[in-house]
Write a structure and sequence with these properties.
The chain is 73% helix and 0% strand. It has a domain at 54-84. The radius of gyration is 25 Å and the shape is rod-shaped. The protein is mainly alpha-helical.
């Protein structure tokens, strides 16, 4: 689902970005604006899997609650219709 990179690959990807960064950092530290850029890109990939997971959980809960309502309230017709 997500592409994981080895530290060497990260260095290759960030090196053009580090030269264009406007801030000064300690030696060996990646500038904050680059960290922020990576975090934004990473979090931006969450929407499709998050939506799929939500729909799956919602569907599972609806089925479960329908079974519970049927089992516990089927003898009380009006109450069963209200909780469905």
């Amino acid at each position: 689902m997500f592409n994981l990179l080895l530290p060497q690959e990260c260095i290759l990807i960030t090196s053009p970005l580090t030269t264009s960064a406007t801030s000064r950092e300690l030696p060996g530290n990646v500038p904050f604006e680059i960290k922020g850029s990576f975090i934004s890109k990473f979090v931006g990939q969450w929407d499709p899997p998050r939506t799929r997971l939500f729909r799956k959980v919602e569907s599972t809960l609806e089925k479960h609650f329908a079974e519970v309502a049927q089992r516990h309230f089927s003898t009380y017709r009006q109450l069963h219709q209200a909780v469905r």
